[in-house]
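Need residues for this backbone.
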């Protein structure tokens, strides 16, 4: 990545907020290297991949195709001031469990989720490979 990026749970990535339009995203990152259209059964999702930045962005039909999920694989991205990509599973979970974001729970054999903050960690070979998060749902 060309500049340091930090994850803002529930809000977005550095200067890229959830709810941004595709035009707003392309003004920040340029055109994506790859675009996928995904049929989720009851709706469509469009994923923009910026492989050189280690970022994928998702725009769901139910959200009027505004930015609703971010996935990062770049080791330069920080969360709570720490670079997490590449950490062993127990190191990453221990660090995040101490950040007052709710309890972690296994999602799959490859993943851990923090449901309270819509944060998902995906591991490959026991090391954190990808961080995924979305806007935090609030009950009104």
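Answer:
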């Amino acid at each position: 990545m060309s500049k340091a990026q930090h994850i803002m749970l529930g809000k977005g990535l550095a200067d890229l907020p959830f709810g941004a339009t595709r035009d707003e995203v392309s003004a920040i990152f340029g055109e994506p290297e790859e675009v996928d259209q995904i049929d989720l059964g009851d709706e469509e999702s469009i994923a923009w991949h910026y492989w050189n930045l280690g970022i994928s962005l998702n725009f769901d039909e139910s959200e009027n195709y505004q930015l609703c999920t971010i996935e990062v694989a770049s080791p330069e991205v920080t969360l709570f001031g720490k670079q997490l990509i590449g950490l062993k599973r127990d190191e990453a979970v221990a660090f995040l469990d101490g950040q007052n974001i709710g309890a972690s729970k296994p999602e799959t054999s490859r993943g851990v989720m923090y449901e309270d903050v819509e944060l998902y960690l995906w591991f490959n070979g026991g090391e954190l490979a990808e961080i995924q998060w979305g806007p935090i749902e609030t009950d009104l």
